[in-house]
Design brief:
Blueprint lengths: L25 E5 L2 E4 H17 L7 H24 L6 H14 L4 H10 L4 H22 L7 H8 L2 H6 L3 E9 L2 H12 L4 H8 L14 E2 L5 H7 L11 E3 L2 E11 L5 E12 L7 H16 L4 H8 L11 E5 L6 H8 L10 E3 L2 E14 L1 H32 L2 E3 L5 H8 L1 H6 L1
Antiparallel strand pairs: 1-2, 1-11, 3-4, 3-6, 5-6, 7-8, 7-10, 9-10
Helix pairs in contact: 1-2, 2-5, 3-4
């Protein structure tokens, strides 16, 4: 039986025990709910199947049964908590989840449903199990997520670990110029600031062995560089040029020429400002358009954009800042605003246009390609730390929940069940 990629529970309904005529009974009382013998049997079958599929010897049935019961108890406690908290999964949410499951298994929805049915499980039971898992996950996030706190000290400590340095940090391509004296280094920097190419200066004066290659060094992570170099160049943007760095060999000037890695990413960003007027019951749309066009004309005639934005703009966020919105990339602003912004030349005043917020005109002050690498690395580091703390906190929460619960396990006769489970015929069916 194929194990679907999303499923964390072991207790999907199955067909094996439907062929075994065992009267269903209450097996465990858990606070206000119960676990039926059929649920335990289904979990046992699934466990046996997993061991068989992985070619692992099956543990004694009594041991497996205890594991299944404990897992079902914890699941039942969470479902009860979710019910008290009013957690609900809509049909639309459930349908979307199953569609994603099908896609993750490289199947269309209809094909996936056919697979489930052919595998011996009813689609209704499958939906119910998925719904349970969604409810459990939601209550876990609500109960555990709020308890997780990552301090700045913990965060910075993780960024300094070998794990972070080797898996998250990018490789750097660095150029260097090596000279004997500080005066020579200062003159080299002056040449570069005056517009000479770094590589040309390196070829001309550098004493390093890679001078013939324009000072180009090999791709390396900052952690693999000498501390003198890594401290100067790490976490800098491409194009950064260091001040002279003194070593036993002389004075080094470094340039971060390029970087690569899974989190190296650049984003086009715009620095813009705008003026917004919002139609109201006092000032209708036509009057608003007339007024904002008048303001635009005053700017074109020479009045200061910032001053008029402070006086007239009705954007509460930017009006007091002279209309400035800061550096923004795509996907942040209203579509009409973004389309206008990205098609404007620097310093040009746009025509008046309308968005859901009202009537605007804008000016693009500058553009840049922003290095997102550091932001993405820190986001991933936070996710890793959060995930680890989440698992730890979840385990503690579930352990406490289980310890405080009222649980009564019925002493049911299970000999026939174990004989059936341990028989070669039944195992062959799994």
């Amino acid at each position: 039986m194929k194990q679907f990629t999303f499923i964390t529970s072991l207790f999907l309904s199955s067909s094996l025990f439907s062929a075994i005529e065992i009267l269903d009974r209450v097996a465990v009382i858990v606070d206000d709910g119960v676990i039926m013998e059929s649920q335990i049997n289904s979990g046992l079958e699934n466990m046996v199947t997993r061991y068989k599929d992985q070619n692992i010897p099956t543990p004694p049935m009594e041991s497996l049964r205890e594991q299944v019961i404990e897992s079902l108890i914890v699941e039942e406690l969470q479902l009860q908590l979710a019910n008290r908290a009013g957690v609900r999964i809509s049909d639309a949410e459930l349908n979307d989840a199953i569609t994603r499951i099908a896609a993750n298994n490289e199947m269309g929805l209809e094909q996936f449903i056919d697979y489930i049915v052919k595998d011996g499980e009813s689609y209704e039971d499958f939906r119910e199990n998925v719904k349970k898992q969604m409810i459990v996950q939601r209550i876990q996030r609500g109960r555990v997520g709020n308890e997780i706190d990552i301090t700045e000290k913990e965060f910075q400590a993780f960024l300094a670990t070998d794990e972070s340095l080797t898996t998250l940090e990018p490789e750097l391509l660095v150029k260097q110029i090596l000279v004997q004296t500080l005066d020579e280094a200062d003159k080299a920097i002056q040449r570069i600031e005056n517009g000479e190419d770094f590589s040309s200066v390196a070829k001309d004066i550098s004493l390093s062995s890679n001078a013939v290659d324009g000072g180009l060094m090999q791709w390396r992570k900052a952690a693999d560089m000498p501390d003198l170099f890594s401290n100067a160049i790490d976490k800098k943007e491409v194009g950064f040029i260091s001040q002279p760095l003194e070593s036993g060999a002389g004075y080094h000037i470094l340039m971060l020429f390029d970087k690569r890695g899974p989190f190296v990413q650049y984003e086009d960003q715009w620095l813009s400002r705008h003026i917004l007027l919002i139609p109201s019951t006092i000032r209708d749309e036509e009057s608003t358009k007339v007024e904002i066009n008048d303001i635009r004309s005053r700017i074109i005639d020479g009045e200061d954009f910032s001053d008029l934005a402070k006086e007239f703009s009705e954007d509460p966020g930017s009006g007091s800042q002279g209309g400035e919105l800061g550096w923004l990339g795509k996907g942040v602003l209203a579509p009409e605003f973004e389309e206008t912004m990205i098609n404007m030349n620097l310093g040009e005043i746009s025509p008046v246009f309308e968005t859901q917020f009202g009537f605007h005109f804008l000016e693009v002050l500058d553009t840049r390609s922003y290095d997102m690498t550091r932001d993405l690395i820190e986001d991933r580091a936070y996710q890793i730390l959060y995930g680890r703390k989440y698992e730890e906190e979840l385990e503690n929460t579930l352990h406490l929940m289980r310890a405080e619960a009222f649980v009564e396990i019925k002493d049911l006769e299970r000999k026939k069940l174990f004989i059936l489970l341990e028989s070669p015929q039944v195992l062959d069916q799994t």
